[in-house]
Amino acid sequence: MSRILVIEDEPIIRTELRRLLVRAGHDVSEAGAVQEAASDYALDSFDLVLSDLRLPGAPGTDVIALCPGVPVLIMTSYATVKSAVDAMKLGAVDYIAKPFDHDELLLQVERVLREGKLTRQNAALKREVEQAYPVSGMVGSSPAMRDVFERIRKVAPSPATVLVLGESGTGKELVARALHAQSPRADGPLVSVNCAAIPEGLLESELFGHEKGAFTGALTAHAGLVEASHGGTLFLDEVGELPAAAQARLLRMLQDGEVRRVGSTRPRKVDVRIVAATHRDLPRRVQEGVFRQDLYFRLRVVEIRTPPLRERGEDLPVLAKYLLEKACRKLGRAPATLSPEALLALTVHPWPGNVRELENALERAVILADGPVITPDLLALELPGGEPRPLTTDAPAPVEPEAEEAGGSMEEYFRRFVLEHQEHMGETELAKRLGISRKALWEKRQKLGLPRTRA
Ligand SMILES: Nc1ncnc2c1ncn2[C@@H]1O[C@H](COP(=O)(O)OP(=O)(O)OP(=O)(O)O)[C@@H](O)[C@H]1O
């Protein structure tokens, strides 16, 4: 049952509509004019308003502004294309020509109600997602990620050039997407270019375009990716790899807002926001003379640093859960969960490949899993040297019964993590990274014969 308000000044039609809609199972209220409706009812409590266009006092379309979010269907006996278009322009969801066929009217009402419900559900879902993840698709609530979100929020609306710095796989491209999505250019194009992936000889013409005959093989004129990004954002990934000639053209573009296609002397105005990213140490490349200092300064108007995964300790379990769900959805598998041992293994892994490595490990595990639980062996985590992390050690630690059931790997990870990190981490930090209390850490040390080495 939906709540419907009928605004109609002809009593006969109003009664007819009421009867029809009540019979279809709806709760119907009535008014003879927009003003009467506004004074008698809380208009935003309705699921649908069905209003005549010509009413005493004010046209039916005036009700649209009074109940934002509520679909309004306009009825008119003067169903000219113009009045229908005008009503829709003012925000009506649709219009009905009078005299109306009962079945058609009911079908239209049901459709609008269904769509309205979907819109409301989507809006609620969007609000929920936005609260959980302030930047679409980016999971994290560690202080380092909160800083990233805060910077994105502040910088996105401005036209400022942004330089995103971070190791490979830390989400630099996601940052660029978020900057675009939260900017006034969101409806314009977002063009992503990986500067390292395009052969050096082609890069200049790919980015800035060329004129016919500019070089052998340039059979037709070609607009580059900069021009294709007009009105939007150009994301230059691996900007540190740009060859010198392309650096010079990019600098000119940033200074003058113009591009010159290769082989042309005519400048073309472009309105493009540049977001650049690199995992390289750009100041060092400047020092080495391979990256222009003036371009570096132009690019780094604002810097955003994406933290490596190993510095986002508390984000790991949430991120792993999110990426596991994503992998199951992508692969069409039933939802899976991580065993506690698998979670511990993820927690202690150093993640040189960052979130991308985590995403790949989970995807591989979902493919290999026979059941709904992901165990450490399925993750096959690689050590930085390239060796798969062994699941047994030469000198196995004393194994607790419950860990033995789970393959003994939990103790092994614990032992390895403590031995690897106790020299440079305090007990509080160690316990935090392991996701256990200090007391539990002390007890485990006793049990495994791993006494503390630091005061
Ligand atoms: N905070 C995050 N939440 C969810 N997924 C993430 C997050 N960060 C990165 N990812 C995912 O990890 C993968 C790698 O991210 P992305 O391509 O943005 O990294 P990158 O820093 O641009 O890498 P590269 O330098 O290698 O190009 C993507 O699939 C992305 O969706």
UniProtKB/TrEMBL annotation:
Please list the residue ranges annotated as the Response regulatory domain: 3-113
Q: What GO biological process term is on the record, naming one?
A: regulation of DNA-templated transcription
List keywords of the entry alphabetically: ATP-binding, DNA-binding, Nucleotide-binding, Phosphoprotein, Transcription, Transcription regulation
Q: Which residues does this entry mark as bearing 4-aspartylphosphate?
A: D52
Using the UniProt annotation, give all residue ranges assigned to the region (Disordered).
384-406
One protein family per Pfam = Response_reg
Write down what this protein is called: Sigma-54-dependent Fis family transcriptional regulator
Q: Which organism is it from?
A: Myxococcus llanfairpwllgwyngyllgogerychwyrndrobwllllantysiliogogogochensis
